[in-house]
Amino acid sequence: MTKSASTPSPTSAAPPPPPERLHRAVYPGSFDPITFGHLDVIARGRRLFDELVVGVGVNPGKDPLFSSDERVQMTRDLVAQLVADEPEHAPVRVEPFGGLTVDFARSVHGSAILRGVRNLSDLQNEVQQAITNREVAGLETAFVVAGQSFAYTSSSLIKQITAMGQDLSALGPMVPPVVIEGLRQKKAERHPALMRFAGTD
């Protein structure tokens, strides 16, 4: 009796599975200084992507309080602690960059840009930027909404409190202790960026 044509050959092999695609997101910012709100976005981004690259950028339109090296080091230290606390989620690396965010994202082979949204004002600005990034570079943007306690925390507010306040422990709910210590040092040095907030430049 001949074998039916529909019977599979015993030597035939199943097709190989498709190669896995690494979904790598880029989370850009000046992080001057990094806040608990930023760390919240990083923590949630680790649950959404296979890998996260935090880009510490240089914005020519801003006068930074912390140098690029200081911001990168603080961010790396805090991210390392975050990853150690939750090792089951995606890895994170921190890299400095200059120029356009989309160029940086391409250079690290990012497939999306991660952004945190604190309020409606943030959303309006971020949506316009997201449309531009998609049209110009083909990069999608993923938004995460800030937790309620971070809705009005900003680096500018933190600098203002540092410049005009006496007790920097009030910043405890907004930034980690290592950042408060760095802010105390900048205040003692009378950094020009803080003096402008205090109106004494």
Provide a quick synopsis of the model.
It is built from seven helices and five strands, in the order E-H-E-H-E-H-E-H-E-H-H-H.
Coarse structural class: alpha/beta
As laid out across the biggest beta sheet, the strand order is 3-2-1-4-5
Report the CATH architecture of the domain at 24-152: 3-Layer(aba) Sandwich
Could you tell me how far the N terminus lies from the C terminus, measured between alpha carbons in angstroms?
A: 99 Å
Rounded average pLDDT: 88
**What would the principal axes of the Cα set say about the shape?**
globular
Number of strands: 5
What's the SSE pattern?
A: EHEHEHEHEHHH
**Largest sheet composition:** 5 strands, parallel
Radius of gyration: 22 Å
The amount of beta strand, in percent, is 15-25%
The low-pLDDT segments are 1-12
How large is the count of helical segments? Answer: 7
CATH top level label of the domain at 24-152: Alpha Beta
Under CATH, the topology of the domain at 24-152 is which? Rossmann fold
